[in-house]
Amino acid sequence: MEGEVFYKTVHWDRRLLSQSGKRPAGPLFKFTCLNGSVCQLHLPHCQIHSDGGCDFLSVAHVTDDNTEFIPPLEITETHIIINITGFSAYGNVHEEDAPISPIQGLVLLFHQPFVPEQRSILNVFLLPSNVVRKEVREVIERDGIREILTTSPCKLTPTQEYTLSTNPADGHRIQPKEAEFVKFDSYENYYYPTFQLFLQTIVKEVDLLLKEKEGDELVWNRLVWLPASPTDVTSTVSAVSPAAPPANPSAPPGRAFIIRHRMNLETRLGLVQPLFLRLQDRGVLIDEEREEVDSKSTPTRQNQALLDMVVRKGARAQEHFYQVLKEVNPCLVEDLEEQTD
Q1: CATH of 253-339, one of 1.10.150.170, 1.20.1250.20, 1.20.120.140, 1.10.533.10
Q2: pLDDT averages per 10-residue partition of the chain, 341 residues
Q3: Domain 103-225 carries which CATH code?
Q4: Residues 6 or more apart whose Cβ sits within 8 Å of residue 328
Q5: Which terminus of the chain, N or C, has less C-beta within 10 A?
């Protein structure tokens, strides 16, 4: 018997899960049966069987007025299997007080060129293996940013701090120096780089090494070949600070400002509520998006989520953001722009 199913990812109600002692352990999928009938679901998970993480997994069945938690029929190395009688939203959840254990992770690379300046950024994402990779690409790939295909799987531990390094002789700068691998419920479909590698000249290859902050054992190591520049400019370019990557000179002011100062904006925006009020007045953001930003656990993650929302909405939204920021925080805008004068 064949069936046809349509699905999309939707947001978790993290407060509701927390009241039940649960937290997300994967995307929340909303299903619609278009043809035929379906009696069983196989939902991807990222836990490692041998480390006991699967013992604390179940599946949340979310409807408009209720959430029930379904014990697995079977857990394979890669999927949770449950029987179902109807469709709505289903997603993996984990006991909130479960011990922390390693999970199957991914290292995803996205290359962001700046032409004709001949500089670029390699954005490095550490993510759980059961993210929807197509969704990640749709969010990240814009304005010339493209994924660099490599062998991505590795073992990562939530809350563990990691460091990314390259050959010191290459002289590349990496920010931040160390970063925590966050749990799945910290993403909520807004993806931001764990590390950024700033390449000051045309680079054909780079050797990346990922380690736990404490210890010498390699978690992941790959030689990455980077795409050729679309131009044949051979002149050399003087180095600039990696904290302020050059924006495309033809870009609108708002988009150019965000590109150039993204790292600083993530940590220096301050209170986001005044920004939200004005962005809502201009029709850039809505109440649900404001609540989404408010739900983030730290000011930096709130800033990252807000910037991701604005960037995804295109050049007009980015221009509104730039103008609003000049209204509510003119000193910050002046300070950042003076750094690149």
Answers
A1: 1.10.533.10
A2: 73 85 90 70 89 87 87 93 85 90 93 76 92 85 82 89 87 88 62 86 88 86 78 33 43 78 82 86 85 79 84 86 91 81 50
A3: 2.60.40.2660
A4: 274, 275, 278
A5: C
